[in-house]
Fold this sequence. Notes:
The structure is a homodimer. By secondary structure, chain A is an all-alpha fold.
Amino acid sequence: MSDDRDLHLALIRQVEQALEASFRSSAIPAHLAEAMRYSLLAGGKRLRPVLNLASALACAESEPGFGEEDRQTLIRALLPFASALEMIHTYSLIHDDLPAMDNDDLRRGRPSCHKAFDEATAILAGDALLTDAFGFMARTPLPAPRVLEALALAADAAGAAGMAGGQMLDLDGEGHALSEAEMTELDAKKTGALLRLACESGAVLAGADGAHRQALRRYGEELGIAFQITDDILDVTGDAATLGKNVGQDAQQAKATWPALLGLDEARSRARFHSNAAAESLNEDLFGNSPHAALLRRLARDLSDRTF
Amino acid sequence: MSDDRDLHLALIRQVEQALEASFRSSAIPAHLAEAMRYSLLAGGKRLRPVLNLASALACAESEPGFGEEDRQTLIRALLPFASALEMIHTYSLIHDDLPAMDNDDLRRGRPSCHKAFDEATAILAGDALLTDAFGFMARTPLPAPRVLEALALAADAAGAAGMAGGQMLDLDGEGHALSEAEMTELDAKKTGALLRLACESGAVLAGADGAHRQALRRYGEELGIAFQITDDILDVTGDAATLGKNVGQDAQQAKATWPALLGLDEARSRARFHSNAAAESLNEDLFGNSPHAALLRRLARDLSDRTF
């Protein structure tokens, strides 16, 4: 148990280092670089990069003869791609917080980007993080066909049919009662797509076979559902200091949420169901005793535990 | 002469068809797809896709035995990438027009996206066009290492050190007197980088050698300078009906412009100088009698002719 927590912390540390090293180029206007780094380096759990790295490692570790040196080599190769997923996530937070969108002035315990800077700078910082994320991905030093495939999946997950589409559904849905089917679609696009992509692209980049890829895709999908239900529950039961963002925002903005639709108990039970389904999709027949598969299983189970 | 005008129209037609076919998926929320297509299909000269296609074709045509069938095959393969450049350009127009940015309510002769829809939808339509552009690029059916290299260059050209950075410099510079060096840097980032990228990436995608690539990079760079000087001149001397956008905006927003810095005559003479330099960089030693190299030379010369 302590083992996979150490692995988790090691991955977060490597992602932080990679992010810290980014956007220092003198070719970037200083004002813009400052806003990008302000939002990117504001902490956070780095969940998407961790999922990406752990998914690739879980695939690689299930092959015989994969040693510690191979592991460090693979992590180093994956870091541009994994870091790019955090850039995409950060861009989406910056734009979602804008006055024309969710109008949120607190993020990760600090003023959101448009409050710390201004609206134009926040729009551009988001645009630049999104754009440069694809440049980071394209420079991932792994076989080009794998990198291209993973990058195309990332664009799908973040684009019109994915995260951006989900935010559109979210805005369009404000003040309306959404059905369970509508909320499922909204969540699948708004947060689910990128979480699933983080896992599936890890398998693609590791050159995994179809069974491993499918298992990680399933893991990411179930995790995404559990994640969004958990997030909705914590918006009701959590406090701003712990979460680093305003709570009660969903009710204030008349957004449909899982606790409102199902009641708190049923929402908790659903979160647990999907967390378990995620964990169980990484079974030992496929992943042997891969320590990063164990980490992924624990991450899924910890998620719904937070709601109790 | 009529020959290369026909080639030009044929390229524009193929780009229009590719753009028209995009974003019809039912997986995209209808409201978002409508806003994306509203801005993407509003006409325009499709300059960046045309430069991209013509640059690749100019390289391919300078090799012996490249026939009409090869040409059509190459155009079809290039269209996802070329169309993506128009998506990136369109995203930048949508975001630049936002109230927090240049606050422009007319674009290509119609209400700009945030006027036709609303601000949140315009932000998301821009985000989605930018994101999905990388998905289109990644699916370009040419050798993966070439596609990855061209895509990485596109991210650089559009990102923090390129177009997004240029828009930041532009906003930061409003109301200040900029030096010639500052204006040169601003233009190189804001419009120059993507125009140069359109040309250079065409060479990369065609698998061109270093000399052809360098010549097209030079062409794109000189064209970009001529383009921005011309644009500034037309903002003073043009009329809204012809240009499809408001004129006199630069003066109104107290933006530094080339005619203001140099006077109209000197600005015209500079535009002509850089147009000629662009045309001359595609010399016949390298490009033989490639009809698409001839098209590129004419495009460059026509640009500065518009200012007289």
